[in-house]
Every structure is written in structure tokens, then in C-alpha cells.
Amino acid sequence: MTTPDLAALVLTAWLAFATTAVLLVIGTPLAWWLARTESAGKPFIEALVALPLVLPPTVLGFYLLLLFNPGAPLGAFWLSVTGDTLTFSFAGLVVASVVYSLPFMVQPLASAFSSVARAPMEAAASLRASPLDAFFSVAVPLSARGFITAAVLTFAHTLGEFGVVLMVGGNLPDRTRVVSIAIYEHVETLAYREAHALSAILLLVSFVVLTLVYAFNRRHSVRVG
Amino acid sequence: MSVSAKVLTVDAALMRGDFRLTIDATVPLDGCTALFGPSGSGKTTLLRLIAGFDRPNRGRIALGSTPWCDTATRTSVAPHRRGVGFVFQETRLFDHLSVAGNLAYADRRSAQSAAGYTFDDVVAGCELERLLDRRPASLSGGERQRASLARMLLARPELALLDEPLSALDQRRRLELGGLIGTLPERFGVPVLFVSHDVDEICRLADHVVVLADGKVSAIGRTGDVLNAAEFAATRDDPGVVLDGTVTDIDTRLRLVTVDAGGSALKLPLIGPVSAGTHVRVRFRARDLAIATQAPTALSIRNVIAGDITAIDADGESAFVTIRLAVQGGVLAARITRAAVEALELTVGQHAYALVKSASLE
Fold first, then answer.
1. Which site among A118, A127, A130, A145 would you substitute to test the B interface, given the most B Cβ atoms closer than 10 Å to its Cβ?
2. A126, B86 Cβ separation under 8 angstroms
3. Geometric angle at alpha carbon A193, from A187 and A197, rounded to 5°
4. CB 3.0-4.6 Å disulfide test: which of A13, B32, B241, B302 passes with B267?
5. Could you write out the DSSP letters of every residue in B20-77?
6. Cα Rg for chain B, rounded, in angstroms?
């Protein structure tokens, strides 16, 4: 395997890890809120979370590109704080992937939380546990399967990202050139052997990861997607 | 251990769909108090209001002088700060922890509390020694309830709320666990408020009763007084009459307990463990009492109580009448036929004897 292809693999793995980590932090409170709320705004937020499932990645990527542009408030803010642009950068890819993979984190988590959000939390409160204490000591351990499912799906989904990356990241080696982009490039230049190698790796990793998730959830179904 | 006789003041209303709960009551928290009523009368909802899991639409709930919830001042103490223990009908043990883990969860968070009993005291009291390593999912119904009760005790609450703790159990386990619940105030110094729709259970365990009907308190008071009241009797099919008494003698050979109920000595079958001097309630169902005008001899019935007839009430259009007989310690009710009344020429004021075919020691 060539060095640029190896770099693309490493970059992709990093992107998937970073996206999963950020989504665990953002997605957990959001999923908890969705599982517990009786607010009239719930369907609106649920629809927003699910949008990346149905929107073409190019549409999502197009809007993100506009937001990331240094002329737009978000892009300008990022540039002033970090000195780097969000467009065509790794940070930009992480932000885009977080948006793109949001439903894969939030939906399994919200589904897992919905069965532990009331009864065990009341029991914990009757044992003098504060809501935050009860969340970490009762809700999280009881939702362990939901966390694993959500994290693995988010990771696997980010591995295969293409359209959004192409729109906001382009194809800069060591910066934004992820595996799916590298494969596309190989195919365009008719370098089928290299395309085969990378494709096979992606196929194998995705298949193994999904098999593990389904084996793990065999007796304990968590709604996905 | 003495039980602090605090009072729980509830003056609150809650609307949910067609259901309306309007409670205005001062509940003495002394020993065991039963919350009694048919299903749908609001018993569980009232417990949830007290625990803080639900909020009233309007009103005030206070323990002693500490307000827990007051919609007028928009204050509400969070459930975990109320110091209220709750035993849920479906136990709600934490499945990710062992029995010991469940108990330790409560113990750790209440260790600073003043209650003078330890983890081991509770484990012994609830007979959980051999279950500590087990997972909740592997426990039987009775074991789950005991573990849940122990976990609640280790939260060292100021008030224990029990939502139908015995309803899922068979008769034998009911008696066992009921006995345990009855001793909680004395052994662990915690007043108990428990939901029940079983008159036997209430008679056996409760010192006080709050009767709920259609979302309102219809009666409140000492168990004997509430259960003997005519309004209560009218709503039940033969709820029986309750006399308060004290165990004076236990005969293990004949398996009999002697109870002094306000001067009337009663011989009752020995069932559970009791000790002399224990305060008990004896329940007489009207259908288990017969009436004689002379003291009978050569009779298998051991309990004959003398008294004066105070009332003879026809039981609707049926063949039966209810005789009320004032005896030492209370007023008994006997259900006999109209024909017997005529044959014996029973009249109000007449001296007579109640023959007790059976009575239960509660």
C-alpha cells in the first residue's frame, strides 16, 4: 500500500474517533432530553436530528460550506479563535461529520434512555441520589448497550463518509483526504488495484463492526436509524 | 427505638384527565399508617405527591413544619432532598447491581444520617444474608420485596412510603413480609405509610388508617375506630369488628394465645411468632359469630363473650339481621337469621352471649 493511502486510512480513523468522542459529549444530553421531555418542541428537534439521514450529503455539505466560509459568522469566529479556516481543514471535517452522524448517536441513545428515564431515576431519587448522580450511577450503566451501539454506529458511519467531506474538505493529502475520497480518486485515474485494497479494508471493517453490534444486541434490541 | 410522632399535612389537588384528587388531611406519622381504598381511588397518586414524583396543581404538602411543596409560594423540595423512602410495587431494584450493590447504593448516600442502625442490622432484619451476591433478576417475588425494603431502610428515610408491598405475594409470604413491615417503626424508628386494599392486611399492620374514595379522604383515624365505623362497614361485605387487645399468655402445647381485649379474655390459635405483652388487634367477622341467651356448656367453641344487645338491624330484604352486642372492650356484630331472632325472642337491651366460631389475631 502506498504512503498516501496509508495516510488516508490513518486520517479516516482519526476523524471517526474524534467525531465519536465529540458526539458522545453532545449527543448524550440531547438524547436524554429527547427521552424525558414532554415539550411540544420535541418533534421539531427529532426531525432536525434525523435530517442527515434523508438529506443528500451534497446538500448538507453545501450548507456547511456556506457556514464555514470565513465570510460567514461561524467561519469568521473559528478563524479568529484558531487562526485556521473551517473549510478545507481537519477541524472542519470533524464539525461536518458531527452533524452528518448526529442521528447515529442520538437515536440509539434516546431509545436506550427511554426505558430508564423514569422508573429507575425515581428509585434513585428515593435513595437520596441527585439527578446528576442518578444519571451517572443508574441511567448510564443501565444504558450501556445503547452507548456501545451508538458509538460503534457513529464510528462506522463516519468511516464511510464521502459527499460531505468532498464539499467542505476537498482532497488535501494529510488534511482532508479520507479513504472514500482516495478510492474515488483511484477509480477516476483507473488505478483499480489501489481502489480494491482500500475498498476491501473499508468493507471488512464495516462488516466486522456491524456484526459485533448485532451479536451484542441479539437479546436486547436497540432501535437504529 | 421511639418513633417521632410527626404529622404529614397534605392539602392539595391534582387533576389528570377525568381523575381528580383532592386531599385535605393531617396524617399522624406514628407507627404504621395504611392508605386504604379501591383501585382508582388515588392511593398511589397520593404517595407520589408525598414523595415529590408528581406535583399537585394546587396546594401544600409539609412534614411537620418543613414545607415540601407549596404552589402558593412556588416552592418544591426535590424528591432526593425530602428524605422519603419509597418501596415501589414493582420493586425497581437496579438490575446492573447485585443485591449488596443495591443496598450499598442507598447506604453510601445516607451514611451521614442520624439513624442508628447499620448495613448489617438491615441485612439481618430483612434476612438477606444469603442473597447478597445475587442479581435482582434471579430473585423470587418475596425476595425482591425484601431487598427493596432493605434498600429503602438503608436510605435512612424520615418516612417510608410502601406502594402495595404485599400485593404480588402468596399468602404465606404475605404474612412473613407483613410481619416485617409491621415492626419497621419500632425496630428502625421510621414511620410507615403503606398502600393496601386488603382489610386483613390493614387490620394486622396498621395503627392508623386513611380511607380514600374517589380521590378524597373519606375517613381517617385509629384502625379499630375506622374499621368499626358504620360508614366503613356499609361499603364492604362483612369487614368485621376489631377489638384492641394485649397478649397475656401463650400456650405452645395447645397452640393457643390468650388475649385480653378490654376485659374479655379470648383464646385464639397461635399462628405467627408473638410474645406476651404485644399489642394486637382481634378481628371478628359478623358471619363467624352466633348468639345465645344463656351461657352455653359442653360446646366446642372456646370463646364466649357476654354482653348486652344494643341494636338489631335488618339486613335489607334478606333472611339475615345484624345483632350489635356491647361487650367489654367494644361492640361486636353478629349476623344471624330473622328466624333465630324470633325463636330466641331477642330484644334490644337484653343480656346475651356471643359465640365466636373463629376470630383472627392480627
1. A127
2. yes
3. 95
4. B302
5. EEEEEEEEEESSEEEEE--TTSSHHHHHHHHHTSS--SEEEEEETTEEEEETTTTEE-
6. 23
Q: Which three cell numbers stand for residue A155?
A: 464510528
Residues in chain A within 8 Å Cβ distance of B105: 124, 127, 129, 137
Between the alpha carbon of residue B80 and those of residues A90, A127, A143, B101, B337, the distances in Å are: 45, 7, 22, 19, 57
pLDDT in tens, B233-275: 656 666 678 888 888 888 888 888 888 887 778 888 877 667 7
pLDDT at B5 > cutoff 80: no
Cα four-point dihedral sign B336, B341, B344, B347: positive
Tell me, yes or no, if B177 comes closer than 8 A to chain A by beta carbon.
no
Q: What is the pLDDT of residue A160?
A: 85
* Rounded Cα gap, residues B264 and B271, in angstroms: 20
State how far residue B193 is from chain A, nearest Cα, in angstroms. 15
ipTM confidence score: 0.80
- Cβ contacts (< 8 Å) between A137 and chain B: which residues? 105
B208 interface with A at CB cutoff 8 Å:
no
Cell reading at B152: 429503602
- pLDDT of A47 > 90? The answer is yes
Q: Is A137 in the B-facing interface, judged by CB distances under 8 Å? A: yes
Least confident of A21-25, A161-165, B199-203, B272-276: B272-276
3-state secondary structure A122-174: HHHHHCCCCHHHHHHHHHHHHCHHHHHHHHHHHHHHHHCCCHHHHHHCCCCCC
pTM score, whole prediction: 0.80
Residue B235 is predicted with a pLDDT of 61
What is the rounded average pLDDT of the residues B309-316? 83
Q: Name the residue facing A123 among B52, B92, B96 (closest C-beta).
A: B92
